[in-house]
Write a structure and sequence with these properties.
By secondary structure, the protein is mainly beta. The chain is built from 1 helix and 11 strands; from the N terminus they run βββαββββββββ. Strands 2, 4, 5, 6, 9, 10 and 11 form a 7-stranded mixed sheet that branches. It has a 4-stranded antiparallel sheet with strand order 1-3-8-7. A hairpin with a 6-residue loop joins strand 4 and strand 5.
């Protein structure tokens, strides 16, 4: 009952910035404010899915992977049911498909999330 659609990926040079968006829809999402968490994950070819950042929908508490701390900022617009990831000072190692996900717990573990978008490609050239 939850549909997540990412956008905003693209090709940028090292040191550049991108802002990813994830728009959520569905009855379950709309009625789960008190327990909802949303996260960003990424996956490069041949590698496992990696946690990037998460945010609690109500209250806005956040958690970041060490690899992106200080460079990426996760946020949300509750009125628009939209999740954002502002990515600054991008590095070639940030190249991956980026996915947004929703779940009921504040967790960095991919298997703990219930719904996933189809991903958006981010490519950072050197």
């Amino acid at each position: 009952q939850v549909l997540l659609v990412e956008s905003g990926g693209g090709l940028v040079q090292a040191g550049g910035s991108l802002r990813l968006s994830c728009t959520a829809s569905g009855l379950i999402f709309s009625t789960s404010f008190s327990t909802l968490n949303m996260g960003w994950f990424r996956q490069a070819p041949g590698k496992e899915r990696e946690f990037v950042a998460l945010i609690k929908w109500i209250g806005g508490s956040t958690l970041y992977a060490e690899a992106v701390r200080g460079r990426f900022t996760i946020s949300r617009d509750r009125a628009k049911s939209t999740l954002y990831l502002q990515m600054n000072s991008l590095k070639p190692e940030d190249t991956a498909v980026y996915y947004c996900a929703s779940g009921v717990r504040q967790t960095p573990v991919p298997d703990d999330y219930d719904y996933w978008g189809q991903g958006t490609q981010v490519t950072v050239s050197s």
